[in-house]
Amino acid sequence: MAATNGCEADHKSAVPSVLTVEDVRAAHKMLSGVARVTAMEGSRHLSRLVGAPVHLKCENLQRTGSFKLRGAYVRIAGLTAEERAAGVVAASAGNHAQGVALAASLLGVRSTVFMPVGAPLPKVAATREYGAEVRTHGQVVDETLRAAQEYARETGAVFIHPFDHRDIVAGQGTVGLEILEQCPEVGTIVVGMGGGGLAAGIALAVKALQPRVKVVGVQAAGAAAYPPSLAAGHPVALGSLSTMADGIKVGRPGDVPFKIVGELVDEVRTVTEDALSRALLLCLERAKLVVEPAGASPVAALLSEPESFEGPVVAVLSGGNVDPLLLQHVLRHGMAAAGRYLSLRLRLTDRPGSLATLLGVLSEADANVLDVSHARTDPRLGLSEAEVELRLETQGPEHCAEVREAIREAGYTVLP
Q1: 318 is catalytic
Q2: Most buried among 67, 153, 200, 290, using CB within 10 Å?
Q3: Which of 68, 123, 207, 259 is flagged as catalytic?
């Protein structure tokens, strides 16, 4: 059986009645005073790369830290009194969990959220603080989802799917309405895609009001279910998933968003893990915004092929709920991918002060020494030789070349 993210379609609504921009407008009205109209920030750095204005739609600054509150609130608000009395249940490792928890709390509905064992503790704590009862089950989301669905069958609680429901899509589409209000001249909207709820909602709203605007979806290369699904004409489950971007790590498109994406999204691109890391680093350093890898995926697409987007461009930063330990790892990876680390091995004369002299050369070249390994007893070395391995932090590829040249000019030989 092919592995998926566990998010099988909510078959009661797998073939919805036709969604229109009026459904999105109704959702927008419902969300007034609940969801923030998030900021639109210009990016000079990305604008220079693309050759056209680039704006960042900051859903990472939304309540709960992601766009997920929008769809969750609209879905739960649409329940009957009887359904509300039974409570709601969801399965998620992060953003959807928090969105459901807060939405249910605001609407006075009891919520239970199943999360995988080992889910990041800050996300578990936040979900509880938003009012949900959290139950941990399973090592992967597949197992967690099955537990949530079994709980729904046993208790009568309403299962709130993260993307495969018309109300969810309508709620997420309110991001598109805000983009058109904040940047009416937009030429291209770039948005990350997992199950497709956000991209479908944005495309639904934007294409109805401004058909000329292009909508480009972005998936992680190691979890890209949409390209083969679109080619096949129906949702296809991936056999494996591999990406740091948990927010878009979805093994099968939702039936509801898939139909909309197939009709209205102009293009779906994929990005590498290196590109995701560089994008996250850029958001932090240049835009001063904390963004999770999934939220940085549109920026990764812009960095990968900047000249291929018709401006003005709006990149949707879908979320900022990144675990601090993952952030630390991704930032290191992003610096390496951006050429900010330099590893060197060289030999020098084994005499007092020789290592200090080398470090002085590096200091003059403005290289930050992270690690030094000094070997003096290796059988490959001559009697008066020592070998040094260095790991340096630099300012980028050009600075790496300058550091290498400074070392050579000082009389040192860099080993292969």
Answers
A1: yes
A2: 200
A3: 68
